[in-house]
Amino acid sequence: MRNRYSLIQISLHWATLVMIILTYSAMLSRGMFSEDDESFINLFHFNFGITVWLLMFIRLGLRHYYATPPIEPPLAEWQSIASKGLHWMLYLLFLSLPILGFLTLQFGGKDWVLYGFTVPQWVTPDPSWRKLLKQTHETLANTGYFLIGFHTLAALYHHYIRRDDTLRRMLPGK
């Protein structure tokens, strides 16, 4: 059995990270620009977020197609359970955030453009739903910092302290 993820899984993992960084960067840069520029930045945030959503779906499909390579030396059972739990939390987070963002726009009655196409309004705008969805979206996005940070620290712990192949399995190259 191979001890690395497939090239497509590795590529999509790192592409997803880049898109997440771009999505968060667009969000964090709000308020730093003029109103016209901010609309442009929002457009990037929305499109990057939807791209993350699409990448996560593809990655989930690939998880069922390719077996997860074993970690050498094997993890303790609690570490294996924690690892799987964290990965599923990350999947759930980055699948739900774009949906919440999309619904926030819909209930806010806001027009937006997805990859150059105007997204039609399909719900009746409702300020109270918009507020709830936006708060939930922002809370989960802030939770993302911790989950991403923990994921990164765990990979570094495995690589530098435990000295197993957890990180090497996902690195590009030989």
Structural description of this entry:
- Strand 1 (112-114) and strand 2 (117-119) form a beta hairpin.
- By secondary structure, the protein is mainly α.
- The model has no long low-confidence stretch (mean pLDDT 94).
- It has a two-stranded antiparallel sheet with strand order 1-2.
- It is elongated, with a radius of gyration of 18 Å.
- Helix 1 (7-28) packs antiparallel against helix 2 and helix 2 (35-65) packs across helix 3 (77-107).
- Helices cover 69% and strands 3% of the residues.
Helix content: 55-70%
Look at the helices and sheets and give the structural class.
mainly alpha
DSSP helical segment count = 4
- Regions with pLDDT < 50 over 5+ consecutive residues? none
**Radius of gyration based on Cα positions:** 18 Å
List the main descriptive attributes of the protein structure presented here:
174 residues; mainly alpha; elongated
In short:
The protein is 69% helix and 3% strand. It is mainly alpha-helical.
Could you outline the blueprint of secondary structure elements for this entry?
Elements: H1 7-28, H2 35-65, H3 77-107, E1 112-114, E2 117-119, H4 127-162
Antiparallel strand pairs: 1-2
Helix pairs in contact: 1-2, 2-3, 3-4
